[in-house]
Amino acid sequence: MRKHISWCFALAAFVAIAVLLPITPVMAADYPSKPLNYIVCFNPGGETDITARIQEPALKKYYKEGVVISYKIGGGGSVGWAELVKSKPDGYTLAGDNLPHIILQPMLRGNAGYKTLDIKQVYMFESTPNILVVRSDSPYKTLKDFIAAAKAKPGTLTLGGSGSSTANDLGTIMLNKAAGIKTVYIPFTGSGPVVPALLGGHVTGLMTYSTMAVQQREKFRPLAIMSEERMSVLPDVPTFKELGYDLVEGAYRGVAAPPGTPDDVVAKAAAIYEKVMQDPDVIKKMDENGFKIERMGPAASTELVKKRMVLYKEMMLEMGLLKK
Amino acid sequence: MPYVEQGETTLLEHLWLGLQNVVMVHNLLLIVAGTVSGMIMGALPGLTATMAVALLVPFTYAMNPASGLALLGAIYMGCVYGGAFSAILINTPGTPSSIGTTFDGYPMARQGRGEEAIVGATVGSAIGGIFGVIALIFLAPPLADIALRFGPAEYFWVGVFGLTIISSLSAGSFLKGVVGAMFGILVSTIGIAPIGGDVRFTFGSPAMQGGVDLIVILIGMFCIPEVLTIVSKGIGGHTAVEYKRTKGVLWETTKKVLVQRANLLRSCIIGTFIGILPGAGGNIANLVAYNEARRASKTPEKFGTGHLEGVVATETANNAVVGGGIIPLVTLGIPGAPPDAVIYGVLMMQGLRPGPELFAERADITYTFMLALGVSALVMVPIGIYGGRLLTRFVAKLPVRYLVPGIGILTIIGSYAIRNNFTDVILMLGFGVVGYALRILGFQAAPIVLGLILGPIMETGLVQAYLTGQGYSWPWLALFINPISWILIGMSILSFAWPYFGSLKQMFQKPEGLGSGNGE
Is the pTM of this model over 0.90? Predict the structure, then answer.
């Protein structure tokens, strides 16, 4: 009889603890009171990693308990984002996220492990506009030359870029359509490999990110950039818009939280990132390296994502890449 | 290029400055600390050089750039070397660059010659490391230019050439080696296609989108079958590795290694060259060096049974990759191997743009970094030999009933640590069981791993080459245009047909006592 009672007691205690433990409420008032786990979904040394490293010292000022940058690599970011949507929504697990990746992957892959709108946007802090570059010793000196050559020899000019279904890929598709030309897009596994491909003459040019053009400014000649206005770090590079082609496209990078993270916690995290992106040291490093600073809070970035979802769906249907 | 135009004197001046910097006490301490940490992380299966370097990046923020880079370089060099320890003692490559060291290193350990293997690996690693650094300091620009000539088609043929190594790796049946390699290539297709982004073989699970990681297969297919074999032979007093205390093994082995001049030189060159090819990844350098050592040897049948030359070849090559991989990094701003990408990030963070500017404007930092790599290679020798001796004794004396669970825990932690992904642990165990079954059937793990490494390289190169060929009358022409492709194709044919040259020769040599013969 005694054994029976002590078992019941133990079981009751166990159930009580098990039920009460997860109910510790997420208090926005004392956020942040724990370390931040900042997940990078791409390889170390890539744009996302470099951005995180640039932000790290400033973030540590606000996340006083510490900032841990961890990697969850694979599937072009999808493995990391699939993990994110299953993580605890307490605001201490955030992941770097990228457009157009988070839109195109679920759209084109069937099951990418997450849904675009499940990823709760916290802050969109940078973009790297697409830029069309050729080698400095290339015969093409302006965009006009390039397009003329492409028209004369359709299908022979090749443009290298980072990955499939990425901003570089889309940029090439959009350029082909707008200029009525046929260039062949050659995907490379990341932005790194495109540089030796162009330097060695294995591709005619690159549709790459602004950061690469800045890094290799001695060896590359940028022809045009897909941003609204010229970038201060590349003052001599005309925009496609100036040259008559309404093309604005690039990769956006930001930070996002799991679905179900309370709005006030998200707002606090966004406020911290806003302050980080005002840090003069961060601004300097981002500019130097060719990143375009954006400052979009949760509402603005969710708007951006939704608008892009509509735009890309149309494009994909038109291209026949989406079967429906 | 500005670098080449500087006169000889300036180069020496820079070297002298760099040397003075490097021997400053705090830098030397950092190099030693970095080398030791690197060795430990390299010896643990599951921790790669890339991860080791990435883990320590935050520590470098507080240091001046030269010291920070010296630390990272030392970790990298130490890590590549450290992989030999677990390869030799528990038949599991601590890093993929030591896969080949298991072929002869582990048999040597089982025969009680573990110390000999470790000394051989140490001396080889130091020599390879220093050779890579010398190439970096004096030959960087011309080597970088050669690296640029390798385009998608060339990478495909490098992959094909890599596959011809199978004959060396399949002790016994060549056919089983080929099947193993094909299986490895098939497994490498799991996940997202590198070109085109197709989702392949994920069986609906998003976690499989990342594909099967190389380290997972390494741990699974090298370690688990070994553990299961030990267990199946019965627990009892049996120890996995023997240790016979032999006096003077250090000097004797060192002499034996230094005598292998051809082997050392050839492996150094192979390692440095493969290191400069961004995208080849240094992981195949040790396997190519092993294959070439075997082909050039007068006693090829000894390879795989515990032949010191095998260990020396692999370890020399993989450390030469370190210096080689940094060549494209500092001359062109392109990382040669994955750890270089992390170093690249650090350089960018410090405001140093990798490229000719780095040499011209911040020569002090650049040369300090390069010399630090060389110093690290030297530092490895005393630490490695002493530590290696202790480690060998420890593993040899450890009874199996502690060793096996210990290794088991290591494998689980290691496979989890790669991508913080529990799926990897399950895959590792799954492949471990598969590997054990395959081993019983006579299939070696090495060809499978080779297929896994080369699959993505070949696929990417092939598809990219096809795409660039869209403008030609026949797209596949792109694979045959570049002279470098012809050289690689020739090398592949030679390498593939080599074993048959032996029997061809025999056909022409008539045995004594037979009449005149059969000219064919």
Answer: no
